[in-house]
Amino acid sequence: MTDNNDNYEYANRLLGGLLESESDLRERFDKRIIDLGLSQRRALAELDIELRALNGMLNGTQRMVDLLALSRLAVFLQIPIERLVNLLLDKLEKNFLHRVSSADSQEFIVQNFDLVKLKKCGFIDSTGDFAHIEQRLLKYLGLKSIQDYGKDSFNVAYSDGKPKAKSLLMRSFWVESAAAKLRFINNQYDYNRNRLIEHIPSIRWQTTNVERGLFQVIRELFKIGVTVIFEPYVSTLYARGATFAINDKPCIVLTNYSSFYPSLWFALLHELHHVLFDWDEISASSYHISEQLDKYALREVEADDFAREFFFPREKLRRVIPEIKNQYFIEQYAKANNVHESVIYTNYCWEQKEDDKAIFSKFRELIPDVFEAVKSIDSNAVKDRPWANALTAKDHAKDLLKGIFNGL
Questions:
Q1: H or E segment at 335?
Q2: Cβ contacts of residue 345 below 8 Å, gap of 6+?
Q3: Last residue of some domain: 99, 127, 143?
Q4: CB–CB of 194/408 below 8 Å?
Q5: Counting runs of H as helices and runs of E as strands, what totals does the chain give?
Q6: CA quadruple 176, 182, 186, 190: dihedral positive or negative?
Q7: 96 forms bridges with which residues in the sheet?
Q8: Angle, vertex CA 107, rays to CA 102 and CA 109, nearest 5
Q9: What is the pLDDT of residue 10?
Q10: Reduced to 3 DSSP states, what percent helix, strand and coil does the chain have, rounded to the nearest 5?
Q11: d(CA 38, CA 27)
């Protein structure tokens, strides 16, 4: 004698798999009450079950199930109870595994991103819509899973499962964003240290061209194997720039930590100093952010001195200080020394800032804004809410390849 399962399988074979194809419990139930000419209320009465409990079984959202109610539902749907249990388990697994995965993703996002600051800088629209946040991050960084964030050598600490200090979260995001772009750009030229040393002296006079000077320098450095890009500043970064090792080649990232035009040039030369003299250590650790309070502290001072002396030595600054308010004199002196006059004003302000807290504001009108130079090296960079740009890291890198490095 055959049992119910045998009858079901036999009937299913005769019907060409029709029963097997109707795998959704909700569809089975709706079709059954239509076939019987019953209202939902009448069906509930016959099953002796509440609407909430029925919906929980049909939708696979109720983990605690009344076995008697389940048995009556199997009879009503005319399928073996074993089959009904399997269908219900399939629903439960899909629903609750998704919820567990979503909960894990949400916890990971909370631990590894400063959502308040990401919203403030325009990168996300909400701090509570985790589906939106996750998709924004995945799309922007080109990740398959949010759990992949920080798995590379730039943030190995992410793998330890410990909460990260809030002050480091935005810095980590900035690093990951810049690294994603640099990996895609993937400079095809080999790094040549000797050629870099030969090229550096020609950089100074390029400061005189506010709109295109930095653009030209970055193109020349690219052919020496040094990639330079701009990445908008983020809160708590506390740095002027960074040097990365991407595919064993030096990559420099500049940022608008300051609103003053000369700051880009100082940062560039500062990082080039690290490339020349600290490359082995940076290459081993994957990246270095300038102004970190770590083993590089002494080297930060050395790199600062290198940059300032390169553009306008202290000895020359002392000579012009008596005429610092004579705009015509400073312009002519700067021209004679192949440097933009704002470099002189900025150096002077740095010398005087301890004695005069308002010194920078006094010379602000004589110093171009940093974005006057940035717009030539990154057409997507905007002064207000720069992180609101919808471009992904990959698309941004494509634009940089086309806009700066095209034809090299």
A1: helix 327-336
A2: 324, 330, 363, 366, 367
A3: 99
A4: no
A5: 21, 4
A6: negative
A7: none
A8: 95
A9: 42
A10: 65, 5, 30
A11: 15
Using pLDDT thresholds of 50, 70 and 90, give the confidence band for residue 166.
low
In 113-200, which ranges are continuous DSSP H helix? 115-120, 130-141, 166-185, 193-199
Q: Please give the share of the chain, as a percent, with pLDDT higher than 90.
A: 50
The per-residue pLDDT for 236 is 80
Residues 174 and 70 in one domain: no
Query: Edge-to-edge, what's the strand order for the sheet holding 241-246?
Result: 227-230, 249-254, 241-246, 287-289
Single out the residue of 158, 173, 167 nearest to residue 255, CA to CA: 173
Task: Kindly tell me if the per-residue pLDDT of 384 is higher than 80.
Answer: no
Nearest to 176 by CA among 154, 161, 157: 154
* Domain housing 312: 166-403
**392's torsion region: left (phi>0), alpha (psi -120 to 50) or beta?**
beta
> Could you tell me which residues come within 8 angstroms of residue 34 by beta carbon, excluding any fewer than 6 positions away?
none
Q: Which long-range contacts (CB under 8 A, 24 or more apart) does 96-102 make?
A: 96/63, 102/130, 102/131
The SS3 call for residue 265 is helix
- Give the C-alpha separation, 224 to 250, whole Å: 10
Which residues have a Cβ under 8 Å from the Cβ of 84 and sit 6 or more positions away? 25, 70, 73, 74, 77
3 state DSSP class of 230: strand
In the DSSP assignment, the letter for residue 387 is G
Extract the tokens encoding 257. 């930590």
- pTM value is 0.73
Same domain, 93 and 212: no
Mean model confidence pLDDT for the chain: 84
The gap from C-alpha 8 to its chain's centroid, in whole angstroms, comes to 54
- 107-116, 197-206, 222-231: least confidently modelled range: 107-116
Looking at the 3D structure of the chain, how many domains does it have? 2
Q: Is 3 exposed, middle or buried (0-12, 13-18, 19+ CB in 10 A)?
A: exposed
Examine the domain organization and report whether 94 and 181 are in the same domain. Answer: no
The pairing of strands 227-230 and 241-246 is: unpaired
Instruction: Phi first, then psi: give them for residue 201, nearest 5 degrees.
Output: -55, -25
Same domain for 240 and 360? yes
Q: Are strands 287-289 and 249-254 parallel, antiparallel or unpaired?
A: unpaired
